[in-house]
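To whoever is on call:

I kicked off a structure prediction for a single chain this morning and the downstream step that reads the tokens threw a length-mismatch warning. I double-checked the sequence; it's 126 residues and nothing unusual in it as far as I can see. Pasting both halves so you can look.
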Amino acid sequence: MEYTKLFLGFAKKTEYKMPCHMVVEVFMNQAEFLSVLRESLEGNIPKAEMEENLRYYRELFEQSEQSDKELCEELGDPRLIAKSVVDAYLASKGADAEQYREQARSEYSQSRGSYSQEYQSSDSYG
């Protein structure tokens, strides 16, 4: 039985000996990882918080002895990281969370123009 292995970044076809539904592997470099992370955070947390998180991951790449591919595999999907960051940030704000989300959306709108509908859902992180 043949299965398609989906690679984000590079598409390849692979044959598997054991059945599985679908396997997704992410092959990214540092720039792609940080770009997806930025896109996923923008408009969801204030710009200063976003920049702090981006700086953390940029430094992680710079200090790592692993290749970009290996580190990306270890870190996982940057959209899931962004979701965790946003959720943790909003949870830390308690009852004021929506006010901080609106601040983030306002900052994003001012820097990018109008705020995109796709980011207005609380479940959308990229």
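Update from on-call: the warning came from a stale cache, not from the record. Cleared it. Sanity check on the structure: Residues 1-24, 114-126 have pLDDT under 50 and may be disordered.
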